[in-house]
Every structure is written in structure tokens, then in C-alpha cells.
Design a protein that fits this description.
The chain is an alpha/beta fold and about 230 residues long. Helix content is about 25%, strand content about 10%. The protein has helices at about 10-15, 40-50, 85-95, 100-130, 190-200, and strands at about 1-5, 20-25, 60, 135-140, 145, 155, 170.
Length: about 230
Amino acid sequence: MYWISNQNDSYISSLFGSFVDEQIYTNHRSGRSSTSFDENLLPVYQEILKRPEAKKLIIVHMIGAHPNYQLRYPEQFNRFSSDTSDVVETQLEQKNIGMLVQQQRNYYDNNILYEDWLLKRFFQSLQKNDHAERRSFVFVSDHGNEVGHEINFAGHSPNTQAGYQVPLVVWYDGIQDTGVNLDKQINTADLDTLMMELMGLHERNETSHSSLLCHNYLFKPSSSWPYWKPVPTS
């Protein structure tokens, strides 16, 4: 089991990295001022893929689209700016979203463009490594970001829906092409069950779980749902 990370975070590394056989960090500068690009993880990932273990789990921990967004991508991904006015920018102006937040939204879009490009490279590297008997690939974000769609703010947002809407990509050998589903609600807290299913693991006292891979998966919200709205007091 491998933990490769581009975040130099002592809390996360001690909490999660300590469970693996090998930890590798490509970023040695803590905080949001770091300029280490996530692509630095790719050669490490590719090298581990070639190792001859019969079974392996590689956990890739990126910085992703964290503020400061403009530090997260190379210059060639600087595609969006105030000069590339689009429909969303017009909508933000109509909602009186400030220019600073609009600028952050452009940085964020550049960041997402870069991460999408990099995610494709990680995925293709796994597909080219056809020595494994069975392969699977899961990508998910731990949280979303608000960039002016609901409030005049950019960054981590526990009080708006954007802070909880995250992408989830699942692929495994033999999967049917299901495309993109923007309507189905899922709970990423169910990912542990998904990962165990993909790896062929079973609990000793197995109970019934709602698998994300089932066509009839049903999203079951907790009592605190929706998380971004204040809990009413009695």
C-alpha cells in the first residue's frame, strides 16, 4: 500500500499516511503558498505501477483546486481571465459578485482545467499497465469550493452547496460505459464500501450496504442534511 502526496500536511500524513507501507512526498513546503504542481506525483505513480507486487493500492493525494488557485497550475493552463468573458461571468456580474471573486473564479477554472488534464494522464498510465489481473481507478474530491455562484466569496465554503458538491470518477476492468450523471445524488461517505467491493474484500460480520455500483443505489441523507444549512434550534 502506497501513499504519495503533494501536500505537506503533518496532520493528514500522520492520520492517513501512517497506515501504508510506504509514504512518498513530492512537496516539502507546507501551507497554501506552496507552488509544487500535482504533476510531480505522476512519475512516482508510474514507477510504483511497474513494481511487481501481486496486489497494490496506490493512494494519490493531490493539492487539487485549493486556494491560492493561481499557484496550482503551469502557465500553459492560463486560459481564463477577465478578457475571456462568458455567460457565467455575466451572471456573476448580474448578481453583484465582486471583481476579486470573479478573478478567483477564473483562476479556479484554470486550476480545474489543469487537474482534468492531469487526471487523464494518471488514468491512461493505469490503463497502459496491463500486467495486473484486475485494475480499478477511483477519483474523488474531499470538498468543493465556492467561487461566486451563491455568495460573494471564493474558497472553502461549509455554508453553501458548492462546498459539498464534488466529482466522483469510478472505473474498473469490464465496466460498462455509463457516461456522466449530473443528477444522481450519492454520499461519498459510502466510498469505503465501494473500495472494499473493488478490491474483493469482505467484512467478517458483513451487513447489508448500499453499493455505489448498484443501479438501484439510493442516497440516504443523514439527519443533518443538507449540511450547508444551519440546523434549526428548538
